[in-house]
């Protein structure tokens, strides 16, 4: 909306042409929307949707019974409003990210709704149906990216720490992209288990891709850093700014002790958005670095299942791994702060890879 004013008016409206200005504005807009509406939203939602707590989890979590969930609904609302105000709405990459986020958010909403209705954390959508829906949506998204991407990047991926290396996957690229989006969505979903953990971890990862999307969309910077230059991707920076602002607004209420939980509607939506942004910016493997916390959380679940199935023994006291540390005696706040520190370090390592090539 505001971007279009720069094409019709001069003077102060020229500011709206700059991605950096609109990114800051979109971040602040989504942040203020969540903070301003947060209390009213919580008061409304707590009479209708409260989070079922798993009884076999850490006993300290039982006191969270009755905490409202679906905080991701307001996250998505804040992002959408801010994006519509500040993004260039003629940019196809922006719409791909918004479509991915909203469609995965809808899957999460239905899953949350069934859990709340049944009062059981295991009575949501079946894992099989969730995966079918997620992969179907991911292939639709992949086709959209394929249509927009320049020919030289249509089916290629880049490798961190190496310059001018493009690996053409051919038709397997569609499979790869689907796994990146679905894998990231579910990894973030698994990480969202204790107050504030997923939120700040996502902020650090999105901050990396905020910078990456800006650099990838600039011919001069991408040439200097030996990064692929993808015209139009710079506009995604503004959208990432709105995501960071909304998540920080949510964290205002989700910090221990949480007044509201994100729910699958938020974690699946934001995880899928993070995955698709890594694909659009041609830095899928960079996500493995800055989002290593999500990878470890997901791997801990898979290793736990495999160990119990083949050995009859659990590898961890409880999976995902943040619960393992809780059961070892770490307080919830200790787990969260230490994971935050690790995520910040990983983000710095990821950013250093942009220069070390």
Characterise this structure.
By secondary structure, this protein is mainly alpha-helical. The protein has one domain (20-352). Helices cover 66% and strands 2% of the residues. It contains 14 helices and two strands. The chain has helices at residues 2-8, 19-45, 72-86, 92-118, 127-148, 172-191, 197-216, 219-224, 236-254, 263-280, 284-290, 292-311, 321-327, 332-352; strands at 156-158, 166-168. It has a two-stranded antiparallel sheet. β1 (156-158) and β2 (166-168) form a beta hairpin. The two termini are 38 Å apart. The relative contact order is 0.16. The model has no long low-confidence stretch (mean pLDDT 89).
Shape: globular
Distance between the termini: 38 Å
How much helical structure, as a percent, in the residues? 55-70%
State the order of secondary-structure elements, H for helix, E for strand.
HHHHHEEHHHHHHHHH
Strands of the widest sheet, in order across it, are 1-2
List the domain count as a whole number. Answer: 1
> How many E-type strands?
2
Unreliable stretches = none
- Give the biggest beta sheet: 2 strands, antiparallel
Radius of gyration: 20 Å
Strand content: under 5%
Structural class comes to mainly alpha
Arithmetic mean of pLDDT? 89
Number of separate helices:
14
